[in-house]
């Protein structure tokens, strides 16, 4: 029905906006017949109550956080998603319980107990806290289940690539094109709330796991970050982040900053990252966008809808994963041939030679695999020579120290 804004040196602690702007909004509501007023920021409980009194009972007042939580509640499909959204809504609602039931007070106590009984708002607050405690217990069970799943996945390590990005950037469409995953992908906010993991085979036969995560948004409510921590923990266990950007969006730069802010809040801002500029086919001048991306080392242009650029993206993913792996040179006995297969599945093999004692392999593997291969490592000739040089130098130093001790003892001996 309409929109308005106000430039203020500081936020009005009572009504967020100035008193004159409140009167202006009241007049606009009366003239347009609007039934809902949405503020594009989070209102404090006091501001919410004062604005509700000013606008009247016929108008629903909603701030940015309440609107996002409402969208999330509509999108939640699984038990985990519903639990997380309900907890976030409860945490938001607790300090904002209205006094609409304050006229309903419990009977005062009998005998020596005097005074008013428990007010309805206090009952509501107590019940809400109890529900929040139950929700946290249920979510902790989900977190335990996810942790066990990740431990099983780590036992047979396959690199995990997490798709992160602003909501509606095209992460689910990209995953569907790569894997035919059948993930819900629609042109709307927060279409995906629950992480979906699918296996992807690279051209060289190497296997990866791609995980689609919940989309981020500017000024993401803190309640959502806390409630969705079990889901967002999937990002922390990833070997590589694919930051998917809707490069055709006019506010793409601001969306990138918003995603980076959430990643910093999760403590994963320094993880290996490949920037994926999606929807390049929807740009006004795709060639210019591709030219800009070509000048950036960690950026690739794709179209999740048409499949354009996905081959180059997978090559860049393979190269990035190799950079994050550990170089190993091992001799694997034929009796442990399953280790050779694991190296091929989880790492990048540079050379493999079959000898009398076993298979000599030079490869890059994840750290967990490298640690298991430690007893089978072979030292290169240069490494052996360096070790011998260090040991010789240590022997010379020890001999010099013994000679010095002997000379000192001789000097201190009585003549």
UniProtKB/TrEMBL annotation:
Residues 159-325 form the Hflx-type G domain. Coiled coil: none annotated. Its cofactor is Mg(2+). Transmembrane segments: none annotated. SUPFAM superfamilies: P-loop containing nucleoside triphosphate hydrolases (SSF52540). GTP binds at residues 165-172, 190-194, 212-215, 278-281, 303-305. Keywords: GTP-binding, Magnesium, Metal-binding, Nucleotide-binding. GO terms for molecular function: GTP binding; metal ion binding; ribosome binding. Mg(2+) binds at residues 172, 192. GO terms for cellular component: cytoplasm. This is Hflx-type G domain-containing protein.
